[in-house]
Amino acid sequence: MPPSRLRRVAVLVLGGAKPLDVGIPAQVFTTRASMPYEVRVCGAAPGLVTGGDGLAYHVAHGLDALAWADIVFVPGYRSPDREDPPRAVIDALIAAHDRGARLAAISTGAFALAATGLLAGKRATTHWHYTRALAARHPLVRVDENVLFVDEGSVLTSAGAASGIDLCLHILRGDLGVAASNHAARRLVAAPYRSGGQAQYVPRSVPEPLGERFTATREWALHRLGETLTLDTMARQAGVSPRTFSRRFVEETGYTPMQWVMRARIDLARELLERSQRSVEQIAADVGLGTGANLRLHFQRILGTTPSEYRRTFTRGE
User: Which are the contacts of 129, defined by CB distance < 8 A and separation ≥ 6?
Assistant: First the structure.
């Protein structure tokens, strides 16, 4: 899909909608020269929608926006475990999906997607407070409470509000490439690199200062991807033993330290392929992978494509 193609985004506001959840996709994908998206905020019908936390939304569009959209976001809403959205909303979501639109839920918006039956047999997540309720109400959904977001291709779900940002950046990375996603993250003052496999929250038994130290170590590593990075050097930087570092790193990110480093290197390679004319061999050296053959091997394993094809995809039409 060429990066320059205009994509249409609908944000579906249901009764009791949570303000942060509504605002995230509306702000991330808001129409601007550097972003080929058009956003429409809609409800079950045009007009006033009573939200949560004392706010209300005046939406200009009804469910016709779902027939127009390429991506439909369903923000979280209050008491999703009590009743499903109106039948007309469910039918419109199913019709949008059947037409080829992607459906993406933020937080408890996952309940609305589950009500369509489109999550049956698929992995999904929601806010940790509601994971058991989602599993109980929709037993065919494979609920994963230990991740920030889940991408099942045409249906995507995320945990609490902050992970909605991660999901939006993940979609941007797939649509426009790493450079555009990182630019959006900087604009939002958000972390540009949080995997979907990262835990929703750090276990209570972990002291907060150590968590901050691990975050600083990841930032330190991101600035040294072209250098030799090992478990021992990263543990030394964090001031803990390699065993403690490895165990805690998996708890916090969902990856071993070296898996995380490899994916960070591939992400940097993606950005260089998008934004520079450097050869594959030069980029491999820049990101710490040594040779073009090594870069091609890991690119294929992680992304299922080659560096050259990736470059063609994300520079086509520019």
Answer: none
Q: Could you tell me the two tokens for 294?
A: 């090594």
Q: Which stretches of the chain are DSSP H helices?
A: 19-28, 64-68, 87-99, 109-115, 131-137, 161-176, 178-188, 208-222, 231-238, 242-253, 257-275, 280-286, 292-303, 307-315
Please compute Rg for the chain using Cα positions.
20
Q: Which residue type, as a one-letter code, is found at position 219?
A: E
CA distance 64 to 10: 10
Query: What phi and psi values does residue 197 have, to the nearest 5 degrees?
Result: -80, -5
- b/e map 199-220, b = 16+ CB within 10 Å: bbeeeeeeeeebeebbeebbee
Q: What contacts 149, CB < 8 A, 6 or more positions away?
A: 125, 156, 157, 158, 159, 163, 166, 167, 170, 196
Helix, strand and coil in the chain, % to nearest 5 = 50, 15, 40
Question: pLDDT tens digits for 277-312?
Answer: 999 999 999 999 999 999 999 999 988 889 999 888
> Rounded to whole angstroms, how far apart are CA atoms 187 and 244?
34
Q: Backbone phi, then psi, for 17, in 5-degree steps?
A: -60, 140
129 backbone φψ class: left, alpha, beta (φ>0; ψ -120 to 50): alpha
- At 193 the pLDDT is 53
Half-sphere exposure of 56 (CA within 13 A, CB side): 6
pTM of the model: 0.75
Beta bridge partners of residue 32, listed in sequence order: 35
Instruction: Residue count of the chain, please give it.
Output: 318
Distance CA 159, CA 144 (A): 10
